[in-house]
Amino acid sequence: MPSKLSLSAPALLLAGAAAMAAAPTAVLAGGHAAPPSHKYTVIDVPGDTGGTVVISISKGAVAGYWGDSNNAYHGFVRTADGTITSFDGPGSVLTWVAGIKTINAHGAITGWYVDGNDHEHGFIRTADGALTPFDGPNSSATRGYAINDKGVITGIYKDAQGVDHGYVRRADGTMKSFDPQGSIYTIPSDVNDDGTITGSWVDSSHIGHGFLRAKDGTITTFDPPGSINTTPNCINRSGAISGEYADSNNVLHGFARAADGTITAFDPPGSISTYAVPIDSKGRIGGFYEDSNRAYHGYLRNADGKIKTFDPPGSVYTIPQGIDSSRDDRGAISGYFASDDKIHGFIRSP
Fold first, then answer.
1. How far is CA 339 from the centre of its chain?
2. Pairing relationship of beta strands 342-349 and 333-339 according to DSSP bridges
3. CATH class of 9-349
4. Domains of the chain, residue spans
């Protein structure tokens, strides 16, 4: 995959899964062995030998990707009734559903796939199974990272000169590229139902900053105080943003940016690195953190700042990725965890 066409840190942690899954449970448990107070549904795609990674959840349906015995990856959707369907783009050798908000309330999914010529194409897959590829202008690599409930998609594409840009794709298929002023490459991560997009951009000094792009195209950049690298991940219906940033010691902290621009930094107790991934309509943030034993645990931060940590039973590391933000959501969390030398998807029900 092209080096600059990268996801935020949460989605990249899968690369180290084999090593972490093989680590002794006694070392990695980190004192999180209390009986679970929530229901956990473990998800494994039939035929999975390379791990099942659940990314997003909406109205009880989840989307993600899984690996087969040939080290090929495929997309999948699990509907609220438990039915699992695997899928691939036309001519795909690898299919990824690995963005930030990959499924919307209508069951439409976005992601990307790699063809036999090593070109990456974005796609939208509707609930009836119809899959439509798309590409940015003169692009050799296009990825869909997020889709809102109106079918608007955002992501990145690489142009003919090898420069990475952000784009917004309307439900009618029209695409428009964009970059914050001074950006040498742009990584949108999420779009809300108002069409507001958040993500990161990198300046000529290779420093990452956050941005907010309004539906009319106006772009506002931002950084938490003391940040040397800012990674916004998700934006909710009211315009609140979740993400993480690195301080001057290169330590990662979570942050919440309110719609008025106020930024609040936070860390779960015992964290040496904090990742803040989804934020729901009530301002609850899901994510994960690394403890001093190099173990990863999930957490849920309420809008009032209270944080509760969690791990699915048997987990040696836990990576939450989504919160159900449908209109009738109750805060179900989706993600993946390592147990028994294997990666499993999960849903944590309230």
1. 21
2. antiparallel
3. mainly beta
4. 9-349
